[in-house]
Design goal:
The chain is 25% helix and 24% strand. The protein is an alpha/beta fold. The protein is globular and about 55 Å long.
Length: 251
């Protein structure tokens, strides 16, 4: 939907993990869902948080990072051909629109197809997490450039209970070593493309809840980097007020 920027070919292996000057990172923002749990006719990812639509918040955050070459926004089919005008309040040369699929994984696969070949590292992000910070993005890029998967995450601090269908506690789940997965999640491009290909071949593509799980399934190492409470996922109506409260806070 927008013009592509011609980028120099780079050797991703030769890049230092902390290099933020070479634009070799492609970002896929998944915004293809219906957002039915928040209610209302307007799509959740189009609703405003902290002065901007959530999708635009995330889009601008990634475009502000100097390593990002292109951002692909994956929208529901009925919006992909006619996106909301505010979406283009960004660097249009580094933004493309792709069509969402029937599942999250299919939407990501569509976004991967549209990324230019110069993007050697891929970040995948949920539009429902509008308050992603530069620091989080930087940490995921640095780890993914080391040749394995990386996800932003936070350690579980609450006591976890397993409960049966009648609401009875069956046992307490040890929380040691448990982390709450967030996005962005980052991978070498050849790794995440292979993970999606193999999941489709094994008929496990549609059931994947995140891209790290696809990589885990093919034996790829995935590491966590520190996430942020600000990077919460807006899922239900009450989450909008919480996101507004978190927006002005530092990571």
């Amino acid at each position: 939907m927008s013009t592509r920027q011609t980028l120099p070919m780079v050797d991703a292996v030769a890049l230092a993990p902390s290099d933020t000057t070479t634009r070799d990172v492609g970002v896929i923002i998944v915004a293809g869902g219906s957002g039915s749990r928040t209610g209302g006719a307007e799509l959740k990812q189009f609703r405003w948080v902290a002065g901007k639509p959530m999708l635009l918040q995330a889009l601008r955050a990634f475009q502000e990072h100097p390593a990002v070459a292109m951002v692909v926004c994956v929208l529901p089919r009925r919006y992909a051909g006619d996106p909301p005008p505010w979406l283009f309040q960004c660097d249009g040369d580094r933004m493309l629109v792709s069509v969402g699929g029937d599942s999250r994984a299919e939407s990501v696969a569509n976004g991967l197809e549209d990324l230019p070949p110069e993007c050697r590292t891929v970040l995948i992000h949920d539009a429902a997490r509008p308050l992603v910070s530069f620091e989080m993005i930087d940490r995921v890029i640095a780890e993914a450039r080391r040749g394995h998967g990386a996800i932003a995450a936070l350690p579980v601090v609450d006591t976890l209970k397993a409960v049966d269908a009648e609401g009875r506690i069956t046992h307490t789940v040890p929380r040691t070593g448990l982390w709450r997965a967030q996005t962005p999640q980052g991978f070498p491009r050849e790794v995440i493309e292979r993970a999606h290909r193999e999941a489709m071949a094994n008929d496990t593509h549609a059931t994947a809840t995140d891209d790290a799980a696809l990589c885990e399934a093919i034996g790829v190492e995935v590491r966590v980097v520190r996430g942020s409470e600000r990077a919460m996922k807006v899922t239900e109506e009450g989450d909008f007020a919480r996101a507004e409260a978190l927006a002005p806070l530092e990571e």
